[in-house]
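Design request, tokens follow.
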């Protein structure tokens, strides 16, 4: 499926550069995927020296919804998301997140995403995202 344009929501916790406490993930949209980068800091710590699992989940959720939103002009709501944590990520480490649309249904998308570090997969997710009738905010 062809992926469309970059879509930013003004105060989004995941991708907005204006949100003072947000993750500020900058996504690049290409023909079949979105890619983003994130570097953690001490405010994202869970176990000593490592990124909190909730932060990794938020990165994955943002990538799943970002790719679905970028391919249509309607809103998206996460219905279901399954996350598998594979490896720990150290604080200060640069992470890459990549998402793909697995399937488009009449009322939903099935999407996948993974977070990677220099060693490989840190966490991965599959989600079902419902299409809603509101217009996406520019």
């Amino acid at each position: 499926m062809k992926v469309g344009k970059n879509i930013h929501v003004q105060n989004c916790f995941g991708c907005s550069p204006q949100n003072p406490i947000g993750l500020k993930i900058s996504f690049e949209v290409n023909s079949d995927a979105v890619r983003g980068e994130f570097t953690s800091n001490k405010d994202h710590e869970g176990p000593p020296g490592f990124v909190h699992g909730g932060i990794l989940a938020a990165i994955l959720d943002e990538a799943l919804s970002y790719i679905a939103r970028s391919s249509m002009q309607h809103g998206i709501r996460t219905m279901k998301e399954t996350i598998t944590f594979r490896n720990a990520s150290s604080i200060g480490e640069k992470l890459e997140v990549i998402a793909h649309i697995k399937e488009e249904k009449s009322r939903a998308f099935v999407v996948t995403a993974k977070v990677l570090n220099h060693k490989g997969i840190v966490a991965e997710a599959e989600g079902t995202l419902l299409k809603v009738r509101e217009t996406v905010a520019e």
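Comment from the thread starter after seeing the answer: thanks! The chain has one domain: 26-132.
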